[in-house]
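Objective 1.3, modelling of assemblies. Example input:
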Amino acid sequence: MYGIEAIAKYNGWAISAVGVSIVFTGLVLLSLSISRIHKLLDLWDNRNNIQLFKKKVVEAPKQELPPFTTKEKASARQFHLLINTMDDAFSLQRLLHLATISGLERPHSSLEHLLKARIIEPDHQGHYLFNREAFDRFVS
Amino acid sequence: METLFLDFFHNTGFFLCDYRNIIMILVGMVFIYLGIAKDYEPLLLVPIGFGMLMGNIPVFKGLGLGIYETNSVLHYLYMGVTQGVYPPLIFLGIGAMTDFSTLLARPVLMLLGAAAQAGIFITFLGALALGFTPHEAASIGIIGGADGPTAIFLTAKLAPTLIGPIAVAAYSYMALVPVIQPPIMRLLTTRKERLIRMEEPREVSKREKMLFPIVAFLLCCFLAPAALPLLGMLCFGNLLKEAVVTERLAVAARTSIIDSVTILLGVTVGASTQGDVFLTTKSVGIFFLGALSFCVATACGLLFAKFMNLFLKEKINPLLGAAGVSAVPDSARVVQVVGQREDPTNFLLMHAMAPNISGVIGSAIAAGVLWSFMS
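Predicted structure (tokens):
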């Protein structure tokens, strides 16, 4: 069998039409996809600037410390005196040692209280600093 | 003693020789000549040409020497062709040596590669009209893809008896790209069109290049799963190249692996052209349709580029359409040569690589589609 008759018998027209369509569809889809790759990468690189991807920072409610009791105020003043004998940036371990040998009452607990009130603050280099402002606010 | 001498003489190639063997040996010599003297695809034509010499030495049947004898060494090597092992390995190497930057920079050029694949399906119709069976017609049509490994892969699956003529036709026409394409390109384009300059492509990031093989593989293989062996290996090879950390594997794929496979493929395909098997009227038809397929594919690419220019603000040089046939990188080189004949300062090569590479992907999809239709 030859000619148009053979093409029709073996479904040649349909195979060719569908075949060309599939090849075209595949390459058009691929072309569209790869034309977006660099834009998607740019988007990913700048994801911090996109509201959708911004991480919502949940701010923890500020916990106000209750005012110092008279006993606590006295303990803070004693610690202040000890700190005055030391350098500006001092070691917490050394302060605790001084408090213990000076016979301060419950030195660990008192020191923790001062840290919570930010009267004593870390300098992020391994030492601690005395915060005059916080001391005045809570103790004076 | 006389009897012994006569027995020996009856087993020699001189006695067993057929005129068809002589013709094929001459064709093989022409291939070797074209490869060495004219530098037409020497890496393919020289192994195929020498394979033709090997395959056409007349041998006594039963000694296990001929490629079609099941117990011969050549037959075992030929199994890489008939079982479709070599083509995916060649695609692995092609992937590992191909830079997809130009394609990523201007994806619209990919459509030219798609348009050129129309030649495959037009030739498929032509082959059906000439009386070939659908399986044979599909195998002949794929010659228009100008992709030797794809043509061999599909023929091995659909019409194994035609591997010899189809492989030789496909590789011959690929080697003859510089001869076949330029007249068609000049015929279908005006001088003004050939002078069009292409815009400088944008720079493509390494990440884009790394993502491309994965996206291309997933998308194309989900659409046409039968293209998996070829496209899978092509994209895998490219990922090895672009991933940088797998440089050793990429180097192996684009050097030792592809070289070894090309030698085995070339020699065995050449050896499969035994005169008595190869020189038939069918082979003549295949060569005729193969040439037609190649010309139609080139013309489709060119005409589609002109069609695209009707809608594009920045016109593309229609010569790029001719690179849509996937003879990488010869057809891209031809585009460069033809373009520079009109304007020596116009560099089209890197732009032509985009449709050229998309042609490789397109022909692999087309092969997968035809395979799935015929199975």
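Residues 127 and 139 of chain A are 23 Å apart (CA to CA).
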